Amino acid sequence: MRLSSAWTTLVFLLMQGASRACTVKRSGGSAGRFSNATLVRLSEFLSAGYKKGVRPVKDWRTSTIVAIDLMVYSILNVDEKNQVLTTYVWYRQSWTDEFLVWNPEDFDEVKQVSLPTANVWVPDILINEFVDVGKSPDIPYVYVTHDGLVRNYKPIQVVTACTLNIYNFPFDVQKCSLTFQSWLHTIDDINITLMRSPEELREDKSVFMNQGEWELLHVLSKYKIFSVDNDDYYAEMKFHVVIRRRPLFYTVNLLLPSMFLMVMDVVGFYLPPDSGERVSFKITLLLGYSVFLIIVSDTLPATAIGTPLIGVYFVVCMALLVISLTETVLIVRLVHKQDLQPPVPHWVKYLVLERAPVLFCIHKKHRLCSRLSSQASDLEHYKDNSYGTARCGHRHQHTCELGQRLSQHDREGGLLGLGLPPSREPAPPAPPVMDNILHEVTAIRHFLEKRDRCREVAKEWLQVGYVLDVLLFRVYLVAVVAYSITLGTLWSVWQVA
């Protein structure tokens, strides 16, 4: 009985010893998994007693110098109406942490290690122009070298306020600033410097996406120390991002159609002014330009503080079209033939028909004058022949004598109508039927003379209209060409600058 009890005790002790041996083996194996992990040992060494809420300097009088760098990757959006610029940049900053220093020989020659950003001290450097939080990826680690240099590299989508000047649109150059500074620490605690020289930073376009609407010209940098209350001084580094718009799209879709419509308006002056086709043609152009402005209104940038020059250009072109239509309506009204149209005043004849053609080399006036003079001579010749002065033949002697008597009576009636005394030779008495015929012929002759006088007045007004049309066309053409040359010169200078 005692022997069996002793064996039972021995077996229990052996089993307990084996269990302890297994437990010791497991624990020893777990410790061995990290026993040769140099990075784990280095991380534990650096994190032992580290205070991330304290500025990492041994002497509190020492200022932490933060070196920063900026590379523009892309221009995402330029909102002229809200004065907001959205860019995507690669931002880099580095500083020295005196508490993250080790000897590489003690850790298998490890000279740098990545640590979580949340476990180390990070300077509170922000961008003053921030107006919205961008969609930036979260980079949770920083690189630390054995001499305490901490490098924090990360991409940032920056949504900043910017004063955008759109007067030169679409040949505008914008200059927006990104100001980096410590929000809380003064220059005694945190100072800012550049990683690279300003010349290298200015010309660096290695990572910029060069396929969008905007072209990166250069990035300027400027260091400044300022004070808010003349007591505490702060350090800031300002980057000026200078970008230029590519104008090809707007030139093809905005400027060229407007120029084509203006050229067609100038060509419309070659239509005859006494026809109604010019009025309908110019009204069609005006309606087409109005539709064009409605279409491009969404393309033009709109701000509450200014209007781009191209908008002024469109408004002036619309005004020129209205002026052209007004001039056409006036000329058509001037040359329109009416029976009750008054004669051309003498001063208008002198200025428009005599002086203006000589001063402005208008040759059409002389052709009109020769045409009118030839028509007047033909009319006088017709009148002379209508008075029966031609010699009659022998067979129609009675008829010619009657015509001569009618012509003599008609001439006397015409003289009485003009207020001149009749001839002293008494006319032979005429039958009553012949009196009626004589009155009818006199009325017809007066009607024809009045119609001829109205035609002459209408032709004089037509001549005045042609001369005025040529003068106004030249003035209009000079105004359009001068305006186009001025704008073209300005836009060429802006594009080259």
Question: Would you mind describing this structure in some detail?
Answer:
The strands form two sheets. Strands 1, 2, 3, 5, 6, 7 and 9 form a seven-stranded mixed beta sheet that branches. Strands 4-8-11-10 form a four-stranded antiparallel beta sheet. It is rod-shaped. It has helices spanning 2-33, 38-47, 198-203, 248-267, 277-296, 309-335, 346-360, 364-386, 397-417, 432-496; strands at 64-79, 84-96, 112-116, 125-127, 130-132, 141-145, 149-161, 173-182, 190-194, 214-227, 233-245. It has 497 residues and is α+β, with helices and mostly antiparallel strands. The protein is built from ten helices and eleven strands. Strand 1 (64-79) and strand 2 (84-96) form a beta hairpin. Helix 6 (309-335) packs antiparallel against helix 10.
> Structural class, please?
alpha+beta
- Average pLDDT works out at 77
Radius of gyration equals: 50 Å
Number of strands: 11
Distance from N terminus to C terminus (CA atoms, Å) equals 113 Å
Uncertain runs are 10-14, 17-31, 365-420
Largest sheet: 7 strands, mixed
Task: Provide the helix percentage.
Answer: 40-55%
Count the helices. How many?
Answer: 10
Strand percentage lies at 15-25%
Q: Secondary-structure element order, as H and E?
A: HHEEEEEEEEEHEEHHHHHHH
How would you describe the shape?
rod-shaped
